[in-house]
Amino acid sequence: MRSLEPLAINPGANRTSGPSDLGIVMSGGGARAAYQVGFLRCVARRFPDLRFPYVTGVSAGAINAALLASHHGSFFQAVQELSELWGNLSVQDVYRTDTRSLVMNAVKWLRQLGSGGIGSAKLVRGLVDTEPLRQYLSEVLHCVDGELTGVRYNLDCGRLKALAISTTSYSTGRSVTFIQGRDVQLWERPGRRPRLATISVEHIMASAALPLFFPAVEVEKAWYGDGGIRLIAPLSPAVHLGARRIIAISTRYQPTRAEEDEQAVYGYPPPVQVMGVLLNSIFLDLLDHDAMRLERLNRLIDGVPPEQRGDLSEVRLLTLRPSADLGKLAGTFEADLPRAFRFLTRGLGTQETRTPDFLSLILFDRDYLKALIEMGERDAEARADEIEAFLLVDD
Question: What's the pTM?
């Protein structure tokens, strides 16, 4: 098993804390969120004392957002801990993969379907049991009675202005963004609602609860699931909170025109291919669309004289994304899954597609996660000058 290269500060690193209006947006994508850690490692080497006053996360990106916002130490130290979190993560730390647990859940689901819904108290709440992830996060996020107490500490110290975690309410169908911050001005848009909260591990579990695969999570007497399902504007929480310079880390590979025209499957698509297309549209595509809208808005604002702009202001955006297809990469690591779970994934058709995107969301294999981190670090290094210019540009 490979180990990550130790994180070390670059000689001549810039000790600036960065812009006061800097925000970071970390999108979803299940296991793909490990890619974001690689980017953060590159930045931490060069800017060890950098601060992100506005931190937002959705789905698995909420895990990264939570640790950054709650860590008591420097940015460099927070990224060190984040590297350890993902570098040591295994499938067994996320969900139970023993044969008995998987078979029992499958049998209960079939029984539920065959019973016409009778006996709702015994509804199957997810294909897998994610209690291991709850326990793991409670430990690594240093929760006290479930609360991420580090968030309150950083708010009181003035190092953090707001943490926003987006979820989807299964009760109302709305996108709900839970916010813990100082002087927060709430907003509301069709289908989207912000809510002040003391962020806990349950909010993180809810945001990361992949639909049907992971069970929904109860928060404040309502049930919530993955935040990427209904969040049509992933950049909006950071913008509404006050960030005017945003780094957004996507986990979506941008294929070339030729790659887009290639067929991933031949013949009738297996379930895993349909699920992959569906989940990509939920978790990976929306950030790109939102970035395009923001760029158009910036161009419109730029054409308005400053004295006529009112409350409108430009929002600088830097988007980073993988240089390779993470779905294809996941396929090379499927053999490392626990046997019972590998039997399940292959039964869904992962061997029949060239790009098993669904597998890339649930493959919490250590070697795969480390490969994602290393790719993220390489991709960030390739754009290091651009990133440095973005963080140091004068207003």
Answer: 0.89
Backbone angles phi, psi at 196, to 5 degrees: -70, 140
Query: Is 46:13 a contact under the CB 8 Å cutoff?
Result: yes
Residues 122/212/62/184 CA torsion (nearest 10 deg)? -70
The identity of residue 319, as a single letter, is T
Amino acid identity for residue 238 in this structure: A
pLDDT-derived band at 357 (thresholds 50, 70, 90) equals confident
Alpha-carbon distance of 259 to 156, in angstroms, equals: 49
Query: Directed axis angle between helix 131-140 and helix 61-70, to 10°?
Result: 20
Structure-token match 């993220």, residue found: 376
Question: Collapsing DSSP states into helix, strand and coil, what is residue 352?
Answer: helix
Dump strand ranges (E) for 239-320.
245-249, 316-320
Distance CA 82, CA 68 (A): 8
- Cα distance between residue 113 and residue 115, in whole Å: 6
Distance CA 390, CA 388 (A): 5
Q: Is 189 left (phi over 0), alpha (psi -120 to 50) or beta?
A: beta
Give 74-123 pLDDT, tens digit per residue: 999 999 999 999 998 988 899 887 666 666 666 665 566 566 655 544 56
Residues whose CB is less than 8 angstroms from the CB of residue 104 and which lie 6 or more positions away in sequence, other chains included: none
- Reference 358, options 211, 149, 176, 181; nearest CA is 211
Radius of gyration of the chain (CA): 21
Alpha helices by DSSP H, 71-200: 75-87, 91-94, 99-114, 131-140, 149-157
What tens digit of pLDDT does each residue of 134-151 get?
A: 999 999 999 999 999 999
